[in-house]
Design a protein that fits this description.
- It contains 4 helices and no strands.
- By secondary structure, it is an all-alpha fold.
- The protein has 2 domains: 85 residues; 42 residues.
- α2 packs antiparallel against α3.
- The longest helix is centred in the middle third of the chain and has 83 residues.
- The relative contact order is 0.05.
Length: 129
Amino acid sequence: MQSTDIMVIAGGAVLLAAIVALAAWIAVLARRTRRLDVLVRTELARAREELAQVSAQGLRIGNQQHAIEGRLRQMAERQGRLELRGEGRPFEQAIEMLRGGATRMDLVTRFGLSDSEVALLVRLHGDRV
């Protein structure tokens, strides 16, 4: 065998070894890529679930805020009505009427008080009637 042939064979062997090493490295990278793909998909699913939970919670909070704002508007309107009815001091007038012998219904009708407000006035000021 000639030295040229040996060199060609040796070069071919080195090239073959390089190809095998490259193929092995590609296989390692493919396994890592698959593991990373699974990890990324898992984390993405978890992030989507958390986003759905945050979104649902935000919707609940928005609904609660809307309800609170509605109640606040009602209370502001009621306060305005009460102030218009009694020169700005409806509870003082209600207490005076209670001391004067007014009934619970009188206070509800005259001042627009709720049953719980009248009950409180009676409890606090009824003993002085």
